[in-house]
Amino acid sequence: QPLISSSKWLQLHGLKRNKLSLSQILSQIGFQHRKDYVTTLGKLVASRYADGLFPQYKKAQDGSVYNLTAKKELILHFVDCLMGAIELYKQRMEWLTSESRQIFGVIQERCIVIVLDFGTAAPAEFDLCRDALSMVLVEQVTQIAKFNLIRAAPALMKWQQKSTPVSEHTVTSAVTWLWKLDHMTAASHTNSAEALLEAMGDEAVSL
User: Which of 89, 132, 154, 168 has the fewest other C-beta atoms within 10 Å?
Assistant: First the structure.
């Protein structure tokens, strides 16, 4: 799936876009039962000709009533469409909460710098962090334009001097660099701030 926000995804695949919101469906399978003000009579007059002729549906949101006139085939068509939408939403949710996205979210920017601060991670946790970073590089960074890695440390460590165009070679190089890093004592707050400032000095869109 493309690396886009959920709001953008809904603009493309949401119920309104596909005319499957409740109001849109009701307007296609019936008509609203109205009560209008008649000036000559000076009062509200309800349209009662449909009373008892059609099944009615009352919207909980605003209390409006719809007379349902559609045939069974049209109703079943909308059932199929809504079931398809539910399945699509489930797939999107599974995708959002799987692999690197459950840790990093969905990277939407075209140029990024990832600042590495491993804190007081034990050796086993250090490897888990590198696993997660390798995953996001392979799964998401491969779909953007440029990237770089900077490690917060007493002596600042950078994979490249500036953000570098994404390619199979550069992503492989970054993963290799990541796994060659040594486990070390935690960086100080000053080291972390310096790494962030260094990243912000690049042309990266997000950190």
Answer: 168
Q: Please indicate, yes or no, whether residues 149 and 68 belong to a single structural domain of this protein.
A: no
Token output for 188: 């100080």
Global confidence as pTM: 0.72
Tell me how far the alpha carbon of residue 42 is from its chain's centroid: 52
* Best CA proximity match to 202, nearest among 160, 174, 171: 160
- CATH number for the domain harbouring residue 127: 3.40.50.410
Q: What is the pLDDT, as a whole number, of residue 188?
A: 79
Residues near 44 by beta carbon (within 8 Å), at least 6 away in sequence: 35, 36, 37, 38
Q: Domain range holding 158?
A: 102-205
CB 63 within 8 A of CB 49: no
Identify the H or E element spanning 56: strand 56-58
pLDDT single digits (tens) 67-106: 888 999 999 999 999 999 999 999 999 999 999 999 999 9
Verify that 139 and 198 share a domain, yes or no.
yes
Q: What is the mean pLDDT of the chain?
A: 88
Dump pLDDT digits (tens) for 44-75: 666 655 567 788 888 877 878 888 889 999 99
CA distance 103 to 121: 17
Q: In this structure, are residues 100 and 140 in contact, taking their beta carbons and an 8 Å threshold?
A: yes
What's the distance, CA 25 to chain centroid?
26
Pair 89, 135 in one domain:
no
Question: Do the domain assignments include residue 36?
Answer: yes
Q: Is the pLDDT of residue 163 over 60?
A: yes
